[in-house]
Amino acid sequence: MKKPSYALLFFITLVVLGSAIFIKPQKKISEREQRSLNQLPAVTLQALSEGTLQEKAEKALADQFVLRDGFIKLQRYVLTSLGMRNLNQVWIGNNQLYQDSASIDKSSMKKLSQALNAFAMKNKQLRFDFLLIPTASGVLENAVISSLYQEQRSNIRSFQKQLGAAYHTFDTLTIMDRYKEDYIYYRGDHHWTTLGAYSMFREWQKQRGLKDHISYEPITVNNAFYGTLANGSGIDISDSIEIYKPEEDKVKTIVTYVQEQKRTTSVYDNTKQYGSNPYEIFLGGNFERIDILTTAENERSLLLLKDSYANCFIPFLLPHYHKIIVIDPRYYYDLLQPIIQEEKISDVMFLMNADTMLHDTSLTSLMQEELQTK
Amino acid sequence: MSFTSLSFLFYFLPLSLLLYSLCPKRLKKGLLIVISVLFYGWMKPINMLYLILLILYVYLGGRVIQNTKEQGLKRIRMWCFCSFLIFLLVYFKYAQGLYDAIVSMLSLKLQIDALLMPLGSSFILFQALSYLFDIGYEKTDHVKLIDCALYISFFPKLLMGPIMQYHDFIIKNEAAFVTWDNVEAGTRRFTLGLAQKVILADSMAQLYAVLNTDTSTLGCWLASIAYTFQIFFDFAGYTSMAIGTAMMLGYQLNENFCHPYHAQSIRDFWRRWHISLSTWFRDYVYIPLGGNRVSVWKHIRNVLIVWMLTGMWHGNSFNFILWGLYYACLLLLETYSPLKHMAKLKVISQLITFLLVNFGWIIFAESDITALGLRLSAMLGFGSTLCSAQSIAYLCSYAGLLSIGAVLVFLPIAKWKQMFTERCRSEWLPVIAYACLFFISIAFLLASQYQSFLYFRF
């Protein structure tokens, strides 16, 4: 038998794979990466002499490579077989992905708590609810993220202790721990599920002494949801998104997107249901300021300072407030005091996940800005 | 064009090899020069002009030097031609920094842009210098335009070496000829290099990037080891691809690495790491200065000069000079202190050498002197926590890859590979192993382009 040749195999592979790119139809979009794929460029002398043709061609070759998804899966398989549990800053647990987070700077944590305490002192007439929500890394314990688990829990507890008596601080860790066997976090996305939000809402409602007799019916709106973590890591874990529909829809709403000057009658945006990020079905995504007017029979007005975790929580708040002003500090560059006065705010709620609140400095900046004004 | 670009791998390489093997023998060198110039100017065609002009300048310089019979004048002419190349190298590396410093010192509100250094200039200009030195010092009298052009532009070694010396390149490749055995060996060597680069070096680069901001002792150690592995697998991988490509064309390039982290002393390390650069500095700077056959003070001066230049060659920020001087000090300590007996304790001396080299890479990687101080003190356990959650998590996650890296770096893999080849009866097994490695490398190459836009913050 003739001696086997690796060189022959090597060159056959190069030629076959190299020419297959030009034979197979070009793909326009990568759903997992949520981006348009680069197309093979048209050859022009100018582009060639400027080098732009070569640059575009290189990107297109990578995007249009035959069996690209299969090769990427092979790479993921090799890495995970070698014990790699972090792909593109996503930690891989047992059928659960976790968002990575860098260590938190204790001094910036202290700055935030000081600013929050001073803000509460300045607005003594208001009630302050503080819900610092752990992410999956702080609740769903796993050997892969055991150190992140400990760190997040200790940061949450330490931060909650730093808040003054003006804040009604909810023991979010204990609450989420109670439901950790349930589907309270998406497996492939960094958000909590609607069930997670609902579980927290029930506890909040109980502790606030508020009563409603509304029962909700979960409706699945998307059962092939590849979230940020699944897409970021390229790991095939999909989720389903549910919305909780009140059995009796007593409360009507008017939702105003202030900056966008857009008004709707629902806190759900059905156009996002099968879009690139189906989680945006809740409030259509994140916006600087959203004003929600409801037909709830009370005079309470809520100022909600939040991140995207609050988006699936807000529907549960509707029966309890006549007015909800939703502010996302990451996009909001104005003052809060005029809102508190003009909108006759009675309650303030902070609802963010631990990662956003303790890493992002926008809330600290907003609070500090607020304190500098008379 | 890079060896790890898809356009090189899937089109340029097979097409070049096909054309080269079909080409009549008398035209082969010419074709190889054309291919090399295209390779160089692929991403930026203007670079082709730079390369062609450089070749012509070096060739004419060589001619003038060779035609000068009087020795003193010959040296003067050699230095005249070399000084322009040295000026180019200094200009490319330092002009922008100098302009910025002047603008800032005079508080001027303008931006002066120096010419950008064309790719691989540090390597190309050193080889051009070697050409002129070899003719000036009469190491060779072989002055032909086609050989000069091929020596300077030969694409496998063009961008990252190995830095061949002209006389050596000419002798080794006088009868370059493509044989199937060469192609077979070349593809195998290329695959090993590709795997080192895209599987190991790039993964280590990711680990280093994540832990670069970690200030815990464990995080800093892990980051430094990741960088130490990354720089080796990256450079050694690229060199293997260069040697492999040259082999496919029937050419021979010198080895550039010989298990550097097996070294038992710093001197030993530099005999194993970037061998072609060390040899260049030895032959063209250190020995002409008198080497070690001079008084102690002159020897110290020579070592300091060589290592400062070595540092400057690597980059234009202060840390590179510091890195060069760090090695100068270590080498002098080894020569003039009882440390020279260190090599007798094999395992300990290997460990100490590795740690010293590891510290050296921290200096090499960190251009901010304050950050460098903080990092080194964190590694020694001062001013930082022992370990952060992030560093523990990444240590566990990368344990497999780090172990593979450690095995390849510290254990006698080459010897084992040799033994396996001799004892393995199946001829298919190595072919399958190389094929798997190649497909996995392609997978890593493509996965590195996977870009999902995470919207955690939005």
Short structural summary:
Chain A is of the alpha/beta class and 374 residues long. In chain A, 39% of the residues lie in helices and 19% in strands.
Secondary-structure map with pairings?
The complex is a heterodimer of chains A (374) and B (458).
Chain A (H helix, E strand, L loop, with lengths): L5 H18 L5 E2 L4 E2 L8 H6 L1 H13 L3 H14 L4 E2 L2 E3 L4 E3 L6 H17 L4 E7 L2 H4 L6 H17 L4 E3 L2 H7 L15 H15 L7 E10 L2 H6 L5 E8 L6 E5 L4 E3 L24 E6 L6 E6 L7 H4 L5 E5 L9 H6 L4 E7 H6 L2 H11 L2
Chain B lengths: L5 H17 L5 H14 L4 H22 L3 H35 L15 H16 L8 H9 L1 H4 L7 H7 L7 H32 L5 H32 L17 H7 L2 H12 L9 H19 L3 H19 L9 H20 L3 H11 L9 H9 L1 H12 L2 H11 L4 H20 L11
Helix pairs in contact in B: 1-2, 2-3, 2-6, 3-4, 3-5, 3-6, 4-5, 5-6, 9-10, 9-20, 10-15, 10-16, 12-13, 13-14, 14-15
Features:
heterodimer, A: 374 residues, alpha/beta, 2 domains, eight-stranded mixed beta sheet, three-stranded antiparallel beta sheet, 14 helices, 39% helix, 19% strand, elongated, B: 458 residues, mainly alpha, 20 helices, 72% helix, disordered C terminus
Question: If helices are DSSP runs of H or I spanning 4 or more residues, what is the number of helices of chain B?
Answer: 20
Number of discrete helical segments of chain A: 14
The gross shape of chain B turns out to be: globular
Helix content of chain A: 25-40%
Question: pLDDT under 50 segments of chain B (min length 5)?
Answer: 454-458
Describe the sheet with the most strands of chain A. Answer: 8 strands, mixed
- The value of Rg of chain A in angstroms is 25 Å
The chain-level structural class of chain A is: alpha/beta
Which residues of chain A sit in consecutive blocks of at least 5 with pLDDT less than 50? none
Strand segment count of chain B: 0
Strand order of the largest sheet of chain A: 7-6-15-13-14-12-10-11
Ends of chain A: how far apart? 91 Å
The total count of strands of chain A amounts to: 15
Gyration radius of chain B (Cα, Å) is 23 Å
- Structure classification of chain B: mainly alpha
How many domains make up the 3D coordinates of chain B? 2
